[in-house]
């Protein structure tokens, strides 16, 4: 289980999982989490604004972006963070800084949900982590955007009150991971979809050893940088 789990202690409604750019089924996004929920997340075109949106709400460029790593539990992190009243996030992956950059910041901002002053706008696209141009592009948008690689103490990093705790989760034995008791905007428990928590094949012990040996020095360097031994070796 990714370590953030423990650290969390301290327009248009999409009808299918779609990648925002290619209108293709996004395998990274094929859980049925957001798309069936009636808010403005994941609009493909400028959204039809609700008549009820308050004048003090506006769309802002994201102040925080989950950039990776792929398969690191980025979807779970975003959905869990959304429980926080000070977080508003776009549901689908915008892929702005890799595939959609030519569309411009106006297009990007328009994808975002409306927020009140003080709320943090977020998105997640794990492929930014492996896109050479992404860091400079994000920096050109804002020097202050917080970049999150799934790891630890996200609420602290974002300067949020530690509202999301163990009590928001239950352990789902079928899925093999924690699920939300009450996701944002719903009173029913919800786990991420079938692409999350897949059965893993048995890996040859020699291969496992080889991988451990390969990553050991990198892990060590990482523990030194973060001041925390994650015990991955
Ligand atoms: N609580 C909870 N809910 C859902 N998913 C969880 C959770 N905890 C960990 N994981 C594991 O995270 C893996 C998917 O990571 P990502 O969402 O980053 O995938 S993706 O890169 O966006 O496709 C995926 O791993 P695999 O099933 O091994 O692919 C999930 O099992």
UniProtKB/TrEMBL annotation:
<dbReference type="InterPro" id="IPR000863">
    <property type="entry name" value="Sulfotransferase_dom"/>
</dbReference>
<keyword id="KW-0808">Transferase</keyword>
<keyword id="KW-0325">Glycoprotein</keyword>
<dbReference type="Pfam" id="PF00685">
    <property type="entry name" value="Sulfotransfer_1"/>
</dbReference>
<feature type="binding site">
    <location>
        <begin position="71"/>
        <end position="75"/>
    </location>
    <ligand>
        <name>3'-phosphoadenylyl sulfate</name>
    </ligand>
</feature>
<comment type="similarity">
    <text>Belongs to the sulfotransferase 1 family.</text>
</comment>
<dbReference type="InterPro" id="IPR037359">
    <property type="entry name" value="NST/OST"/>
</dbReference>
<dbReference type="InterPro" id="IPR027417">
    <property type="entry name" value="P-loop_NTPase"/>
</dbReference>
<feature type="active site" description="For sulfotransferase activity">
    <location>
        <position position="71"/>
    </location>
</feature>
<feature type="domain" description="Sulfotransferase">
    <location>
        <begin position="62"/>
        <end position="143"/>
    </location>
</feature>
<protein>
    <recommendedName>
        <fullName>Sulfotransferase</fullName>
        <ecNumber>2.8.2.-</ecNumber>
    </recommendedName>
</protein>
<feature type="domain" description="Sulfotransferase">
    <location>
        <begin position="149"/>
        <end position="222"/>
    </location>
</feature>
<dbReference type="GO" id="GO:0008467">
    <property type="term" value="F:[heparan sulfate]-glucosamine 3-sulfotransferase activity"/>
</dbReference>
<keyword id="KW-0732">Signal</keyword>
